[in-house]
Amino acid sequence: xxxxxxxxxxxxxxxxxxxxxxxxxxxxxxxxxxxxxxxxxxxxxxxxxxxxxxxxxxxxxxxxxxxxxxxxxxxxxxxxxxxxxxxxxxxxxxxxxxxxxxxxxxxxxxxxxxxxxxxxxxxxxxxxxxxxxxxxxxxxxxxxxxxxxxxxxxxxxxxxxxxxxxxxxxxxxxxxxxxxxxxxxxxxxxxxxxxxxxxxxxxxxxxxxxxxxxxxxxxxxxxxxxxxxxxxxxxxxxxxxxxxxxxxxxxxxxxxxxxxx
Length: 261
What we know:
Elements: H1 3-25, E1 39-44, E2 62-64, H2 65-68, E3 74-79, E4 91-102, H3 105-111, E5 114-121, H4 127-130, E6 134-139, E7 150-154, E8 175-180, H5 183-193, E9 195-224, E10 230-259
Parallel strand pairs: 1-10, 2-10
Antiparallel strand pairs: 1-3, 3-6, 4-5, 4-9, 5-7, 7-8, 9-10
C-alpha cells in the first residue's frame, strides 16, 4: 500500500473516531426522537444525562398516581437534536397543559386545569452544559416537599395543540396562581372533580430578550378651561412596563397520562 493510500485510510479512521466521540459527548439517547427539527420530552423519577441505563421510572405513555407518590425526585428531559449553545436564546419555557378525564372534567377545566409554565433563564456562563443536546430540570424531594415543583398559571391565549400560538411577556396580567405540582395536588383533583385520569401535554420553547416596552392607557377626565368652562379630555392613565420576548423557537413536545388510581 503506497503512502498516499495509507494516509487516506488513516484520515478516515481518525474521522470515524472523532465522530464516535462527538456522538458520545453529545449524549445521544435511544429515547431521542427528532421530527422536523422538533425534539421530544420525557418525564420520570430519575433521567440522568447520557446514561439510559440509569433511567428510573421513565414515563413513555402513562403513570399511576400511586407510583408517583413514591418518587423521591421528579425529572424533565427535552431532547433537542442540537447543542443548546447553538440555540440563540435568553430563556427557555416548559408549557404544561392539564386536561381532566372524568365526571366533572368541564368544571376542572374552568377552575384548575389549563396551561401552566416553568421558566428558566439561560446560564451562558456554563459553556460545558450548553454543549449538551438535551435540556433537563431536576426537582429534589418531590415526595416530601409539597413545594418542590411549583408552576405558574398562564392566562394568555394559547392553544397547546398549536405551538405557534404561544407568546410570552413578563407581565403579571398574563400569569395566574402558583401551582404546587405533587401527589397531594393530584389526589385533590381526583377527589374534588371525580377524575379518572389527567392528560398532560408539554411544549418547550426558547426566546430572546427583545428589550423593555411601556404601554399606557388613556382615561377621560373633566378639565376646567381658562375661561372657567369644563371639558372632557383624555390623559394618560396607568402605565405598565414589561420585557418583550422574541425569536421564539419550538424546541420539543411531548405528553403522558396520569392514571388517578
